[in-house]
Design a protein that fits this description.
Number of strands: 8
Shape: globular
CATH architecture: Alpha-Beta Barrel
Number of domains: 1
Strand order of the largest sheet: 1-2-3-4-5-6-7-8
CATH superfamily: NADP-dependent oxidoreductase domain
Structural class: alpha/beta
Largest sheet: 8 strands, parallel, barrel
Number of helices: 10
Amino acid sequence: MNSNKIIIGSANFENYYGQGKNKISSKEIQRLFYIAKKNKIHKIDTSPKYGKAEEIIGKYKFSKLKVISKIGKTPENINDISLKIYLYKSIFKTLKNLKNKKIESILIQNSEILLRPQGKVIYNFLSLLKDANIIKKIGISIYDYKNLKKILNNFKIDLIQAPLNIVDTRLIETGWLERLRKKDIEVHVRSIFFQGLLLLKANELPKSLYDFVPHWERWENWLKINKLSPMEACVNFVTKFKHINKFVIGFNNSNQLKEILLLKISKNKIVFPLIKVNKKMISPLSWNNVKLKN
């Protein structure tokens, strides 16, 4: 895989994350940064919500590491001045944690907030930081596409982060990837391994996801027939879409980064057995309550 397309995900930096409760140790984080630096991987995705991830990134002081961080949920029922003070404290705490004076990009994690009364205040505040050269890009992180058109009609967005994997193909099926290209908006995709679940065997799935088992058994069988590892298949799937700028990838250890860097991207058009399921399955928030289509 092309190293300049990789953004390191930091959600599990000394912090349990995802259905598999994955966590990467301090020693492995150091190795991860060393491999990243050696292979000219210069971007990392983080958030104040990821435990001590920002502080860990700041601790290693890789000056060439460009950081993408986020604004999470903002307080409700506060006036505009109080909101600006909150945003100021939040972003400058991030800068302090990162031991840096600039951030490559800030993503609004709950993009729907832009359509509420607070939206213009948040966007205008970020625009001031952009004008001051404290941040380079203003972006949004999206989970669905129902209000994306409305957001883009009202705000100039530089960057969009969205999920894409063999299970969740909405970015492609809705036509939004092509539309974003035409609008010259940078696209980063996350969750290419479906929060790590596509790397697991059927018998390794969490008990709460028992209904996934028949689908994962078919997935395992297809991989065996085609002599592919789950990682190879997942990476080959997302990299066939030319208009994706970057891939945010989290690692449980430094060897996984080495493995991805060594992967050969297939030139053949492989027909992937996309896992067609109940739409609710796509959202991790619904995983404990959903029945899948057989």
